[in-house]
Design a protein that fits this description.
Layout (H helix, E strand, L loop, with lengths): L2 H12 L3 E8 L2 E8 L2 E7 L3 E5 L2 E5 L21 H13 L8 E4 L5 E5 L3 E5 L10 E5 L4 E4 L5
Antiparallel strand pairs: 1-2, 2-3, 3-9, 4-5, 4-8, 6-7, 7-8, 9-10
């Protein structure tokens, strides 16, 4: 699948989907949405950040920072700055019906999802090595991602 075709598919898949939660599975970022076919999941293996009003709410690098109260097993125990920030974000997300209002994909796999209130998720592959950067899928459906030929 060519990147321009992937852009159309991803746009159709995600536009209007409702943000449900942000989290992680080990070092993979995870965003869950609710779309036309049920739960829509994005797994992110490259840098990403969630931004609101010009402020980074959470970024993938936050997984590297332990909370002050955490011990040596902070990452394994979900006691990182990332984990604390997504807990706060998820509390807020549950109170609102945040629908994806815009989806854009650039030729290098950069994906941006935009919601109301100046909230957006930026996913930006940063390696010249061919490796999966992100993938989006319904549990019972096809998987799409970048680079498309690796999915």
């Amino acid at each position: 699948m060519a990147v321009d075709e992937l852009a159309r598919v991803i746009h159709d898949l995600m536009e209007g989907a409702v943000l449900r939660s942000v989290g992680r599975a080990a070092g993979t970022g995870m965003v869950k949405l609710f779309g036309t076919e049920g739960e829509l999941i994005i797994h992110i293996q490259c840098p990403f950040r969630m931004v609101r009003d010009g402020r980074i709410l959470v970024g993938s690098a936050d997984m590297n920072f332990s909370l002050e109260s955490a011990g040596d097993d902070a990452f394994d125990n979900f006691d990182t700055l990332y984990d604390a920030r997504v807990r706060d974000i998820n509390e807020i997300v549950q109170k609102f019906n945040l629908k994806v209002s815009d989806v854009s994909l650039d030729g290098a796999g950069g994906l941006v999802l935009t919601w109301a209130e100046e909230l957006f998720l930026e996913i930006f592959p940063n390696s010249s090595r061919e490796t999966e950067a992100w993938r989006a899928f319904y549990l019972s459906g096809a998987h799409y991602g970048y680079p498309p030929h690796l999915i």
